[in-house]
Amino acid sequence: MTAILFIVFLILLVLGFPIAFSLGISAFIYILFSDLPLMVIPQKMYAGIDVFVLLSIPGFILAGNLMNASGITNRIIKFCNALLGHIRGGLGLANVGASLLFGGISGTAIADTASIGSVMIPAMKKEGYDMAFSCAVTASSSTIGPIIPPSLPMIIAATLTGLSVGKLFMAGIVPGILLCVGFMLVTYIISVKRQYPKSKRASLRQIGKSFFQAFWAIMMTLLILFGIIGGVFTPTEASIVAVVYAMGIGLWVYRELSFKAIPAIILMSAKTTASLMVLVGFANLFAWIMTVEELPQLIADSLLNLTENKILILLLINLLLLFVGAFMETIAALLILFPVLLGVAVHVGVDPIQFAIIMVFNLVIGLTTPPVGVCLFVASSIGNISLEKIAKAGLPFLLVSLFILILVTYIPGISLWLPGLFYD
Amino acid sequence: MKTHFPYLDKILSFLVVTSFLLMIAVVILQILARYALPWSPNWTEEMARFCFIYMVALGAGLAIQDRGYVSVNTLLDQLVPKARKRLEIIILILVIMLMFTMFVVSIPLVKIVSLQTSAAMQLNMSVMYASMTCMGLFVSIYSIFQLLERVKTN
Questions:
Q1: Is A285 exposed, middle or buried (0-12, 13-18, 19+ CB in 10 A)?
Q2: Peptide bond into A37 cis (omega under 30)
Q3: Chain Cα centroid distance, residue B120
Q4: Tens of pLDDT along A399-414?
């Protein structure tokens, strides 16, 4: 019976049904064949969405869009370029650095690829960088975004299991920075090998000036983080504070945002949120059916029957997640698998916070790998170049991601040190 | 893209933006109340959730129009136009079936929960659950628009 649920879901997914409706329709078909009432569809949809922490999602999406409309992307890129431009492959390095800073105001990788890519990919091409390489740097480095706070996947993970959003946000910082350093190293080595250009060293004055411009973006990240950690506001409140902050900066500091433009930005953010919440709601229905069928227990038992060795279990889970991440969108995969796998991980003694980071890390790697890597799609449409070429050029970056994934998986301190510092 | 009911678009968009703004206002009030005001209303969280759920329910249909739902198009992109059109029509029909069912079965659900009231605002819970009826209805309507358009174009 549960086989129907999964087989139908996978078939619909491959046929090109939106993921949200693939989940909904497969659950619907399952319900028709079982003795469950159809009423559970709206019931579970409602229960999945009516959660206060989820309110932070439209807030962070809107804050990111407002900052973007205020011209923050160009300012961040200018600052990174002033700082790193004089090193060989400077523009590539600035691309990675900008992803780190941009990750602090947006919660998804796809937004990072689109915003930074539309500026950086043409710029890198103009300076003589290989197109596939430029797209690969952009797509890969944008995966830093959902690991650095604020992060939509982390909010979802917290919602599902009642973990603290603040702790999850803190736990992502060190892995995110490691990823950034790793990507920069690869970019530098390749740039030296291929003799990519470097620009003149920016004067201290120029760096200072560009820093002041990017400063307000960095402040927003810090405001969110310290607001939550300090207990000044809840994650939802922090997201709304970020909205107000972004509006203020856009209207009165950068002066690139007009009052007139705001309703359209709100509407766009609301629609993005709505489609995401339909996904969350149907995933909740899907997950509920799995629980009725005692599937999570079955999966947990069969994994634990294979081995109870912590190292092996984590390895198995990583392989499973990398595979799932290659085919499925991050949040959908998280919604269905996180509660199931968390039980297994905790059973073998992994900290839930660390496990959330491992899980998100695994899934975002899939954003840059075929067959279904949304960041690849976006980069390829900006650069007008085939997916295969970008994927190939992205191989060194993929290896870095995998290496850091191993570190995060087997060294708990990388994720747990910072939250421990602030929370215990 | 040509819309079938420009008024429906406008009304829904207006309501969606209004609920978002109201949600922002209520959360700001919640923060202010805690730090600056002598009283803290206990209804702010519930009110914010109410705005959020209606923003989602009403925005879900509009998102169909924008093709805002993530899907895996690897197979679709490889099909010849005629087969692609057929598959897209099938997808829309199944989406309509699902969402219309949700619309229909949410009506008795709304009646059942009308016996409950919310904790803080004493709001009848059927008002909250009616959002699911709206979602089912508007996603169905916009999917039907898409379907008609797809059938017409060659």
A1: buried
A2: no
A3: 24
A4: 999 999 999 999 999 9
Distance from CA of A275 to the nearest CA of B (A): 6
Q: Among A232, A262, A227, which residue's Cα sits nearest to residue A63?
A: A262
CB contact under 8 A, B75 and A18: no
Q: Which two tokens stand for residue B118?
A: 């919310």
Could you identify the residue written with the tokens 């890198």? A124
* Stretches in chain A below the pLDDT threshold 70: 424
User: Can you give the C-alpha Rg of chain A in angstroms?
Assistant: 21
Q: What is the DSSP letter of A348?
A: T
Q: List, in sequence order, every beta strand (DSSP E) within A251-370.
A: none
Rounded Cα distance between A393 and A81, Å, is 22
Interface test with A, best of B72, B135, B150 (most A CBs within 10 A): B72
The DSSP string of A119-157 is: HHHHHHHHTT--HHHHHHHHHHHGGGTTTSSS-HHHHHH
Residue of B nearest to A39 (CA): B105
ipTM of the complex: 0.94
Q: For B26-54, write each residue's pLDDT tens digit.
A: 999 999 998 888 888 889 999 999 999 99
Looking at the DSSP bridge assignments, the partners of residue B117 are B124
What mean pLDDT do residues B108-126 have? 90
The answer to whether residues A47 and A284 touch, using CB atoms and an 8 Å cutoff, is yes
Measuring CA to CA, how many Å separate A294 from each of A32, A297, A300, A346?
Answer: 19, 6, 10, 18
